[in-house]
Amino acid sequence: MKGKLLICLMLVVAALLGMQPNLAEAGKVKSISGAGATFPYPVYAKWAAAYYKLTGIKLNYQSIGSGGGIKQIKARTVDFGASDAPLKPKELEKWGLFQFPMIMGGVVPVVNLPGIKLGQLKISNKTLADIYLGKITKWNDPVISKENPGTQLPSMNITVVHRSDGSGTTWIFTNFLSKVSPEWKERVGSAKAVAWPTGIGGKGNEGVASYVKRIRGSIGYVEYAYALQNKFAYIKLKNKAGSYVAPNMDTFQAAAANADWKGAKGFYMVLTDQPGRDSWPITGASFILLQKVQDRREVARAVLSFFDWCYKNGQEMAKKLDYVPMPGNVVNLVEQAWKAALKDKAGNPVWP
Amino acid sequence: MVRSGTRGRILDVVFASATKASAIFVLLIIVAIMLSLLIGAWPALKRFGFYFVISKEWNPVTEHFGALVAIYGTIVTSIIAMLIGVPVSFGIAVFITELCPAWLKQPIATAIELLAAIPSIIYGMWGLFVFAPFFGDHVEPWLSNTLGRLPVIGPLFSGPPLGIGVLTAGIILGIMIIPFMASVFRDLFEVVPPVLKESAYGIGATTWEVIKKIVLPYTKIGVVGAIMLGLGRALGETMAVTFVIGNADRLETSLLMPGNTISSSLANQFTEAVGKLYTSSLIALGLLLFILTFIVLFVAKYLLVRLTLKEGVRT
Q: Does residue B109 lie within any of the structural domains?
């Protein structure tokens, strides 16, 4: 119902603004519009500001959440949608949509344990799942002690902190837990919001961060940037190749580079539990959604030019904000796919 | 100056229809909200039926939705809020109207009105960053060591002192509705004709007797109305509660444990809810809140009618 209302509103706005695109089509496109994921909003905004200075083309991005972004691109009320979780190839097919990964981030489990330093604690995937399942409730549980020989762990209750709002971060995190723990997959599953077996929920990354900061003996999961800014004691995770890795730019990029993008139909790729010795196991990409058949060729070209510019010139800006740029090999694949998949009404490719 | 003949009549008709239109407008809005909630909630109601109200499971993965946890959280936090809010606001209002020295009256009244204007998210952040840590470190351990050991009510106050949970949310709500109710109470108590109060004092009544026998009976409709508006705000408050309640969809006996309310579930999950049944279940939650508020208003009206009947016939 709300969706319908929203769409109606958008239609009214679109009708009011109707003059603009027509004028623009004749001349030059002055602005492009997008809506969706909140996670990449800061970096999109940064890119947009720099791009505006350079070209005079304005990006109007509403960070209303991935769900809203998907609804809006389906209804064609925006030029592009953005989602933290990729759409399944079947759904892309159904709505005539095309998606590609734009930017990455890592999800980092963080703890608040007196006497434990950054990256000192090592936890295997199964143990992490068991903590979130509520099966391990004390920090000095033999399982955790065995993985951390030589570290004195307090006999403290574990307080699990999770996100209370539906979010792409939760989607990535629960997807990871489902991959590494059959019991998690069976009992909880993976989605943007799940029925958590234990723990308390904080709203947004900042909510989880403040709960973890507050409650001694807590464990939570946040975006990489929040782990850095709050100087949390992150934990090292055991990846698919069996080595313990720390979360950082290199291990996130390793996960993306080692993933099999070529074999992923419609770029449906979840970067959790990827192969490779250096791959951080809970990495995720944020996606852009476009209509496959573009009504207005000029607008489509403006949108693609913007993203092309971001791929090529936006890397440093992204890193400064603790986002992880897509590796070069993936960018090449994406731009090739643009050529093949995106057409205007007459059936001609819109890119390059 | 009285306007002459026809012109006055026309103006009168215009005025009357304008007020009528406003009243109908309100009714239309209520009906429209009700209808759109019903339509939106229909898929969920059809699927789950009454089970929706009594099930405590809220699982977006398997798409089993039940509202019991949210209903429980909403009611319990509101009860706590009223237990704190009503007596304190009453006290404030009585102090200002009856006992306060004249020079202090205006500063207190202004302070209350300022408090009423603070947006709820500020209360939420204050609750999360200031109140919850204090409460968790100093008050909750004490609560579980004293009240938590008592029979019957003990389980309500046991559990780890997280500082975040149903009790914290209730207290924050209580603080939030105080300024609102206190200023309405004060306005009400001030309209009691001084001659009534002075007569009572004159025959030797104490302040308490004047309040109980003169002021409250004189203002009771307004007082109940103010309490109901406060309760309505407590039931529907979203942001402040979301910050401090812990947002866990589990039914816990202890008030120190996290819970959830209807409005904070909505605030948390609406943006990213995908799928018809999920969205529809959230709207059904909204419908339940609507019904809950309706029941509260109905009970209030009923109580008022009973009170008036007891009074006997006015002469």
A: yes
Contacts of B240 (CB under 8 A, 6+ apart): B120, B121, B123, B124, B127, B169, B172, B173, B176
Tell me whether residue B300 is in a domain: yes
B242 within domain boundaries = yes
Contact A192, B60 (CB under 8 A): yes
**Structural domain for B272, as ranges:** 68-314
What does the mean pLDDT of chain B come to? 88
Tell me the sheet residues that pair with A36: A82
Mean pLDDT, residues A264-284: 87
Q: Are A289 and A75 in contact (CB under 8 A)?
A: no
Whether residues A1 and B283 touch (CB distance < 8 A) is answered with yes
- Nearest CA distance, B247 vs chain A (angstrom): 5
Residue with tokens 């897509």: A326
Query: Minimal CA–CA distance to B80: which of B212, B226, B259, B239?
Result: B259
Q: What is the pLDDT of residue B261?
A: 93
Q: Is residue B227 part of a domain?
A: yes
CATH number of the structural domain spanning residue B83: 1.10.3720.10
Which among B249, B269, B271 is the nearest to A64, CB-wise? B271
Query: Which amino acid, one-letter code, is at A290?
Result: L
Q: How confident is the model at residue B148 (pLDDT cuts 50, 70, 90)?
A: confident
Q: How far from each other are the two terminal CA atoms of chain A, in whole angstroms?
A: 39
Contact A82, A285 (CB under 8 A): no
3-state secondary structure B35-58: HHHHHHHHHHHHHHCCHHHHCCCE
Residue B157 DSSP one-character state: G
**B163 touching chain A per CB within 8 A:** yes
What is the ipTM score, two decimals?
0.77
Check CB contact under 8 Å for B247 and A164.
yes
Name the pTM for this structure. Answer: 0.80
Chain A residues inside the 8 Å CB shell of B165: 200
Q: Give me A157's structure tokens.
A: 């209750």
Judge whether A155 is closer than 8 Å to chain B, CB to CB. Answer: no
Nearest CA in chain B to A206: B243
Span B166-220, pLDDT tens digits: 999 999 999 999 998 999 999 999 899 999 989 999 999 998 999 988 999 888 8
Number of domains chain B is built from: 1
What span, in angstroms and rounded, lies between the C-alpha atoms of A189 and B230? 40
A67-85 pLDDT, tens digit each: 888 888 998 899 999 998 8
Predicted confidence band of residue B313 (pLDDT cuts 50, 70, 90): low
Contact A165, A196 (CB under 8 A): no
